[in-house]
Amino acid sequence: MALSRPAPAPSDEFDLVYRREMGFVWRVLRYHGVPPSAVEDAVQDVFMVVYRRWQDWDQDRSLRSWLFGIARRVAATSRRGASRHQRKLAAVPEPAAATSLDEQAADRETLRRLALVLEQLDHKLAAVFMLADIEGLSAPEIARELGVNLNTVYWRLRSARARVNQAMAVQECRP
């Protein structure tokens, strides 16, 4: 059964409304806190909603009041997105102080050796090790993700850590 979709706005009418009301929508978005760097995208979002929902516009209601309501909701969504973005940026740790080229080379060598060790490790142990020690997931999260018993996760993690430590120590001894 095909779903019927409302017909979009007639092209000439929509173009006329867009040209005539874009400045109004722009001002409403700025008034409602959309930053200057994001207002152009927000204007486009408003007119995408207008285009899709053209048939929902009650002709007895003024066009500007309809546009105002749409713009207000788009502005709120934009602010929430910006707020989430700022929280994510704040959660990112500051970059460490610049390290010397020798330290960077040593770090890369350590990562290369760790990758080789993980390739040799049983895939179940490697998965738990990577999720816990590299991705930072807790044991209960890993158990849910992998669909295994929590005690199995703890056993695999202890076993993987011991094998990784042993293999890394052996590689340290090699020239």
UniProtKB/TrEMBL annotation:
The keyword Cytoplasm does not apply. Gene3D superfamilies: 1.10.1740.10, Winged helix-like DNA-binding domain superfamily/Winged helix DNA-binding domain (1.10.10.10). InterPro entries: RNA_pol_sigma-70-like, RNA_pol_sigma-70_dom, RNA_pol_sigma70_r2, RNA_pol_sigma70_r4_t2, RNA_pol_sigma_r2, RNA_pol_sigma_r3/r4-like, WH-like_DNA-bd_sf. Residues 18-84 form the RNA polymerase sigma-70 region domain. Keywords: DNA-binding, Sigma factor, Transcription, Transcription regulation. SUPFAM superfamilies: Sigma2 domain of RNA polymerase sigma factors, Sigma3 and sigma4 domains of RNA polymerase sigma factors. Belongs to the sigma-70 factor family. ECF subfamily. This is RNA polymerase sigma factor CnrH. It comes from Enhygromyxa salina. The lineage of its organism: Bacteria, Pseudomonadati, Myxococcota, Polyangia, Nannocystales.
